[in-house]
Write a structure and sequence with these properties.
Elements lengths: L1 H21 E4 L3 E7 L2 E2 L8 E4 L5 E7 L3 E4 L3 E4 L5 E12 L2 H8 L2 H21 L3 H5 L13 H5 L7 H15 L5 E13 L1 H71 L3 H19 L13 H9 L1
Antiparallel strand pairs: 1-4, 2-3, 2-5, 6-8, 7-8, 8-9
Helix pairs in contact: 3-6
Length: 311
């Protein structure tokens, strides 16, 4: 009886081991290829559930069904116009045929290595076939606001652009992975940077453009300042001329009024008229002569009459 119990226990353990070795679970994120002595058997399993295989003989090889990432190593790449740039790339890929994937690449490490070769090679080829502007720019953008056409002239026209280059690399890579059981879902330039020599050239060009813009603005400002100063001088002379004319007219009117008042005041008698003539003569002497002046006066002159009386 005891021996029978031991045999049943041993048999149960063997059955559990066999079941454990033959049953396997496929989850939503998995796809499985069954191999027997290293060779695939049957079709790949892509639906989730519980499955069975021959214990100890067959092996379940699990592969990701989800999207996987690929990060390229930053490389120094020459462009068509012989300028070097550092390019850092990334991509997303997926196993779409696990059986073919196993036959060609065996595992994900082998896939990553193969993708390295494909994407790095295509990146170099397509960048080398285009000028640097095609790689770093996406479109022929127009400056949003500019009072001068200098900035617009500095934007070299592109015909391909970064987005199209990325798409061309993606298309080329997928043609090369058609028989590998994988698909490159997306490819992007993570970062593009100039090498030091190109950076210096770019900064020098930027400074030159800014100096040209500054010189043009400065020239336009000087021209506007000259125009404003010219208008100011003209307006100032015009104002001064009008003011002088008005002042002379006022002075003339004042002198006429004063002369009229004087005439009325001094015309009342012969004595007042003589006094007025005398005062005017004295004013003339004061304004005309000084200690160094020599004059010749006719005896018929009114001034001579007063000078003679002074003797």
């Amino acid at each position: 009886m005891k021996t029978k119990s031991i045999l049943i226990t041993i048999l149960s353990i063997i059955i559990l081991i066999v079941l454990n070795s033959s049953a396997f679970v496929v989850e939503e994120k998995d796809q499985v290829v069954i191999t027997q002595f290293g060779k695939p058997v049957g079709e790949a399993i892509i639906e989730p559930g519980v499955y069975f295989k021959l214990p100890f003989v067959q092996v379940a090889n699990y592969f990701e069904k989800r999207y996987m990432e690929w990060n390229g190593a930053p490389n120094q790449v020459p462009t068509k116009d012989k300028k070097f740039i550092f390019v850092d790339t990334y991509a997303r890929w997926q196993i779409i045929d696990p059986l073919q994937f196993f036959k060609r690449l065996t595992n994900e490490r082998g896939a990553q290595s193969r993708i390295d070769d494909i994407l790095d090679g295509d990146t170099r080829n397509f960048i080398a076939n285009n000028d640097i502007e095609e790689t770093v720019r996406t479109s022929n953008r127009i400056p949003e606001s500019s009072d001068t056409d200098i900035i617009g002239d500095s934007l070299v026209k592109i015909y391909v652009g970064r987005d199209k280059i990325q798409q061309m690399i993606l298309n080329s890579a997928n043609k090369q992975t058609e028989d590998l059981g994988i698909k490159i879902l997306d490819f992007r330039f993570k970062r593009i940077n100039y090498v030091q020599e190109v950076q210096d050239q770019v900064y020098k060009r930027m400074k030159s453009e800014r100096f040209r813009i500054a010189d043009k603005f400065r020239s336009e400002g000087q021209g506007e300042a000259s125009r404003i100063n010219g208008e100011k001088e003209r307006e100032l002379k015009n104002i001064q001329s009008l003011a002088f004319r008005d002042a002379e007219m006022i002075k003339g009117k004042a002198d006429a009024t004063a002369a009229s008042i004087y005439a009325k005041a001094y015309d009342k008698s012969s004595q007042s008229r003589n006094l007025y003539g005398f005062l005017k003569s004295m004013e003339t002497f004061e304004k005309t002569f000084d200690g160094k002046t020599s004059i010749f006066i006719s005896t018929d002159s009114e001034l001579y009459k007063y000078l003679k009386k002074m003797d």
